[in-house]
Amino acid sequence: MAHEAQTEPATDSGRLPPIKYLVVSYPAIALVTLFAVPLLLLFVFSFFRNISGGYLRYVVTAENYVRFLQEPLYLDRLVFSLRIAAVTTLGSLVLGYPLAYRLATTDSSLLRRAVMVLVVSSLWLTFIIRGYAWAVLLRSNGLFPILAAELGLTDAPVSLVPGYWALVVSMVYVFLPFMVLTLYTSIKNVDHELREAARNLGAGPITTFRHVTLPLTKDGIISGSLLVFVLSMGVYVLPRILGNPPQWTLAVVIGNQVTVESNVPFGATLSIILMLVVVALIAVTVRLAGVDTFGVSATEEGEQG
Amino acid sequence: MSDGRETTRSSTGEYARLETKRGSGRDRLYQLLLNSYTSLVIGFVLLPLVVISLMSFTPSEFLRFPPEGLSLRWYREFFDSRAWLVAMQNSLFIAIAAAVGATSIGATAAFALDRYDYRFEMVLTGLSILPILLPPVIIGVAFVTLFGLLGVGGEPWTLAVAHSIFFSPFPFVLVSQGLGDIDRSYEEAAADLGAAKATVIRRITVPLLRANLFAGALFAFILSLNEYIISWLISGFSFKTIPIQIFTSLRYSYSPVIAAVSLLFIVMTVVVMLMVDRFAGGMWK
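YS: structure for the whole thing
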């Protein structure tokens, strides 16, 4: 080994295969057996038949997929998941872009670090705690309904949980940090001298934003929105805490199939469908965003790839 | 507000920026609008955390404004409750094991892909990133099928295994970045001086990557601690973590004990994030 190491700089491709395969074997075996194989099993299980009581019959049947297409409930839940994900993405963009812009352009490093620690810390805090906090704020004796009643908007405090808007607020709340962090990096990467140049040439702040900052952060907006959309598609906890069955996402239905109904095959079928939708979304967005090259020229194209 | 004063102290380039900022009243109006709007957004982020904190110290069952005083009653209830403590013990065990597992998998994959060429590099890269892109409920169901076939579900270590895989993309990405930034001449110098390959890795590469490894492990730790849906699917009602225990209690009431646990969790999360910031060399400077 020692003498191999001495010749190392020249022989990267020469006599090292054993070490090279030894190094990769651990993560490769772990990821294949514990990630690729379970996903494959998921696919296989989606064709099995469930017998009540949680037992399986190992026959290959497409009836789970037929059931998904025939019973309107499941397609309905998929459409709802897409809709709520779109609303969440829009909401976090509207709240997140200005915040990211301010953090990326402020001269106060104290403000930047304080808000970043706040944003990042809240990012990792379990959805359950944050959902619980919003339930506390929005129930009939919570802050917002009491405030609304005091202001005369409602006669008496009206509980907003469970309900559609409670779900929207909590989802925007939970996914805002992802949007802010993505946009922050993107805006930070815009050379501030470009903004100054625009200003020096007489452009007002709005014009500068529309013609310099916004086009240069287009990639950030796309990837932040994609990230939030994809994560929103998988949300399980918040609809359970802040929603009624009409606000349940496909993920909730999947969880219920596995635990309450003990129907793993149908849960697997719904999982495969959700996975296909998510992967298709990512692929289409990357494809479209990659193809679309007008607007941004050679200046800041480093991230595309 | 203090922005103006700070700018005058800093470099001439920024001084020039300040001059243009003062250029017109309209600019200042836009800045004011931006600042007020973003302050509201910051308030939106803060509010639930503040309310939970207040609630955890309230002496009564419900939070009232103004609060009737401070009390540690709900913290005492937490530390007196066997169910909560067992859940905390499970959570910590799983999170520590997941941090070790995820970091070892992610970091080794990153190292292998950075230093060697393989025929199936794309596959390994995909497998290293994909876990975090898929909805967790899917990962949960996939593990339920695997553990069901093996007949091993329902024990904390199975969840630690699942979390190790699910969170390995974080150390993978962080260590990949670190390997990209490393100045290879240190390693070459050590090798030229006769150090064996393993020694170079142990004495040079790993210390240079310490921040990335540590940050990756802390991310995995805190994520595992906070993860609910995979935990719940895999636990199969036979053990509880803190998020599971909170969710179960929420079905009965919004007891302030939940607020107390939440604040403990918030404090832990912030401390860990500050540590990550520290070790990763001030990510947000």
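YS: worth flagging: Confidence is low (pLDDT under 50) at residues 1-13, 291-305 of chain A.
IM: good catch. Also Residues 48 and 252 of chain A are 21 Å apart (CA to CA).
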